[in-house]
Design goal:
93 residues
Length: 93
Amino acid sequence: MRKMKKLQAIVKGRVQGVGFRYFVRREAQELGLVGYVRNLPDDSVEVEAEGPPEKLEELRQRLWQGPALSKVLDVKDVLSEATGGYSAFEVRH
């Protein structure tokens, strides 16, 4: 069995109030990933996703694109071992 990984990312820029969390959920679900996305108090967005490393890399690239109204200025991310604590990908409030 292939080793699953976890991607933790903080996305900065114009990423709140532009549908960014729902964009991330759709992209993650399309890639078969599990985890969550949520807004942070400093106007950034936090993403935590688990799945195959190549799918996480694809999500990481899509985070830089974002939905039409967003403007991503920075993505800080860390790859680590998956915890297996998720069953779906959700938007947290």
